[in-house]
Amino acid sequence: MNTEERIARHTAEQSLADFFNSQVGNLPFYDCPECKNKGGTIVVKYVKSHDDYLPFWRECACMKIRRARQKGMQSGLGGAQENKTFDSYNTADIWQANVKKAAMEYINEPKAWFYIGGQSGAGKTHICTAIAAECLKRGQTVRYMVWREAGTRLKRLVSFKSDDYESEIEKYKNVEVLYIDDLFKSRRRNNELSVTDGDVNLAFEILNYRYNKGSKTIISCELSLNELTEIDEAIAGRIFEKTLKNKYFVYIRKDDTRNYRM
Ligand SMILES: [Zn+2]
Fold first, then answer.
1. How far is the CA of 175 from the centre of ligand 1 (A)?
2. In a designed cystine with 142, which of 5, 75, 117, 126 is the match (CB 3.0 to 4.6 A)?
3. Does residue 96 share a domain with residue 46?
4. Residue 163 Cα to ligand 1 middle (Å)
5. Last residue of a domain, one of 11, 29, 60
């Protein structure tokens, strides 16, 4: 191409690109002024091998945010991930600062588990949600499992010998990062946790699978290691091993001053 042809080709391609780039798209999860919610823009480049100007798709930076938010929606975390962050976690006391430090270190672990037990209302859900949200930000797929609800549903499927059981439990076994909120929590009698064989079997099936696969698992629970061991030694042993023998096994002693819901 001579110079005139080049200018003509470039102008032609660029005006097509400009037209496309001016259009408004309808991608969800984020309002982007850059790509007008199309997810990218067309850029025109000279390609030597073709001796011509050609259009190329350049993905917009907003796609990262969209994917993370979509995963957030699918994770079941919902809006919690927006306000239960590391920044908003209260670290007035040393034990809280230590919990936060362990949680932040845990983020970079590829296969380990994080367990926080003890005192109800001491911010266990907050710190676990912050970890899960950070995993989402890093593009990992997270599933949020509220034991009381998901556990009840799965146990019901087992007792009815439902064909849906396998496909349902699969979601918790195979997800990249699983966050179990309030493991073994169900209806309480006389303030005691009533853990049934069904609970133990279900927890073992999910945790043993993830233990063998080396999948990241975040667990909040009211029980100490001793209490866990009394319920099931195999589960307690796997949790303790995967939390790297107390590096990521946090237990908040029962003490009403630590209950921020009160
Ligand atoms: Zn964009």
1. 28
2. 75
3. no
4. 42
5. 60
